[in-house]
Amino acid sequence: xxxxxxxxxxxxxxxxxxxxxxxxxxxxxxxxxxxxxxxxxxxxxxxxxxxxxxxxxxxxxxxxxxxxxxxxxxxxxxxxxxxxxxxxxxxxxxxxxxxxxxxxxxxxxxxxxxxxxxxxxxxxxxxxxxxxxxxxxxxxxxxxxxxxxxxxxxxxxxxxxxxxxxxxxxxxxxxxxxxxxxxxxxxxxxxxxxxxxxxxxxxxxxxxxxxxxxxxxxxxxxxxxxxxxxxxxxxxx
Length: 237
Prior knowledge:
By secondary structure, the protein is mainly beta.
C-alpha cells in the first residue's frame, strides 16, 4: 500500500467528517491516537471536547443551542486497563463493556451498526490500541450501510500487529462532502507519523477545513511505561 500524506489528505478534503488516526512514532517509542470531529450544521458545530477520567467526551459549547444530543454527545475515548478505545459515537461504551466481559473488539461491535441518520447512514468508525509489556497492536473497524441501503450492514475490521515505526492508519466517515454524504471506502489509509506531538497536533488542526472543523484530540502513549500525554484543541472557546 502506498503511503499518503496525512496533511494533504486533510487539506484536499473539505469534509472527511469524523476521523481516527492510530500509529507509532518514527522513533518507535510511543503509540499515537488522534480523533477529530467536523460539522456542517449548527448543532454539530456547537461542541467541544472535555476530559473525562482517562478519556474524553463531547459537550455542548452553548447548552441553550443544543437540539438533538443523540448522535453528537458521547465519549469518543475511554481506557480499559491497557486498552485505549477511540470511536465516533456511543459505541465506545459498547466496546468498553464488551471487552470488559472478555468479548473481542470485533465481537463487541456485533450489536451495533451504522448511525440511523438517513440518507447519510454515517458509518461507525472505531479503533483500539493494546499495549502490554512494550508490545503494541491496534485495530480499526468500520460499520457501514451497503452503498446507502440501510437494510444491509457491511462490517470491516483491520488489525495491525507490531506496527512499523513511523507508520499509522487513517480512517474517516465520509469520502468527501455531498448530499447524501458518501461513506468511506476501502482500507484505512497508510500515513506517516511524527515524533513531535505538538507539531503533529498543529499539522492536523491546521490541515482541517477552517469552516467545518470542530475539535481535535491527540494522545501519545509511552510503550514501556504506559504513561501518556494528551492534547485537546477546540474551535469554540
